[in-house]
Every structure is written in structure tokens, then in C-alpha cells.
TrEMBL record:
Pathway: Polyol metabolism; (R,R)-butane-2,3-diol biosynthesis; (R,R)-butane-2,3-diol from pyruvate: step 2/3. It is an enzyme of class 4 (lyase). Coiled coil: none annotated. It comes from Corynebacterium glucuronolyticum ATCC 51866. It comes from the Bacteria. PANTHER family: ALPHA-ACETOLACTATE DECARBOXYLASE. Pfam families: AAL_decarboxy (PF03306). The gene is budA. It catalyses: (2S)-2-acetolactate + H(+) = (R)-acetoin + CO2. Keywords: Acetoin biosynthesis, Decarboxylase, Lyase. This is Alpha-acetolactate decarboxylase.
Amino acid sequence: MSALLDGVYDGEMTIGELLGHGNFGLGTFDGLDGEMVILDGVCWQLRSDGTATRADLDARTPFAVVTNFVPHITAKAPDNLARKDVSAFIDSLIHSQNYMYALRITGDFADVTTRTVVKQEKPYPKMVEATQSDAVVHMDHVSGTIAGFRTPVYEQGISVPGCHVHFIDAGCTHGGHVLDFSLLSGTIELCVGTDLQLRLPLTDEFSRAELAPDDLQQQIETTE
Ligand SMILES: [Zn+2]
């Protein structure tokens, strides 16, 4: 995540290889060419016009988080659950905040607001600059799935602390990085993570990147 902030937008891992590490997750594509969501082993590319298409297995990613999703905890969501109340609801379901949790919310939404990064051209700007052109899409009365992770604060810099989730509609035609939502009714599933495997690219850009800026937390809050 720190490398993305520093403008390292090209990775080495292909989507085909990534899917070998997990059937569920999120991320982005080389050049920030859209948001990624992986559900049931299918990788979807969510572009800045809000559309979703199946990602090319030969495409590459500079940042992705994946796991093999096993719903250890399943709960019916409280009716009319707003995004701001999700964290407290998750806290009521889990026994510790010190683990990683993959999170899947499936149901009918009153509204979902997403944003999607716009493909960047070299020389790449830093992410605080790149995300200023993000396209925001608003969907009303939509069924679909929110997928992502609740990450402990101690993983700051490796990943995005707190809830980082992406949305795709039930027809797999639209989606993006979730800014806000209101869930009319649905199901929340959590998969507890105790193992973290980190793969770093052996690129010149990554090896020269500034990965521990003083304002790391602020940059993550601005961009995510
Ligand atoms: Zn995102």
C-alpha cells in the first residue's frame, strides 16, 4: 500500500497467479486501471465509468489482497445498516480486533456510492494526486456484494487499516471502491485470517520507493 502511495503502479504478479493464492479479494491493476474485486474465484475489473468486466488473466497488479474465503461467522445484518455502523456490528460478532477479517456483505442496498481510480500514464503522479480525478458513481436500489477486508491498524502501510471494501452488483455489470452505502437487508459473513504472506515486486520502482513517509496515515486516509 505504501508503494502505491508513492506512485508505484506497476507490479509483477499476473491475475492468473494471484487467483492461485485466493478466490476472494480486492486490489487494483497496473497503471491504476480500475478497481479489482475477486468473488468465487473470478476477478472483476471495475473501471472509472462504473462498468465491470472479467479481468484478463495476463493483466498484472501492483496491489491486491486475497484469501480463500471460508465464512467462519455468518449473521443477518440489522435492517437499514449504514456504512458508519458496520464496524460496530462487526465488533459485536468477533472476539478480537487483532486478527485480519475478510468481509462479505450480500443483499439489497438502498444506495451504494463508489469511486474508481482513473488509469494513469507515466510518469506516474503520487496517489494523493492520482486519486483527485477519481470517478464517483451513485447507485440506488441495487442488489449485490460488498467484498473486502477489516485490517488491524498494525498493518498500516502493508495494507489499508480498517474496512476497505469494493462493491459489485448482482449482475456483475457495475461496481467500484465503496465510499458509502445503506444496506436494506442482507447477510454479513466474516472469515478470520491468522496468516499473512507478503509478496513484493523485484522492480526498480519498488526498490527505490519511499515506503515510510512521515504522513503515511494521512495519505492513506486521503486516498482510501
Ligand atoms: Zn479500494
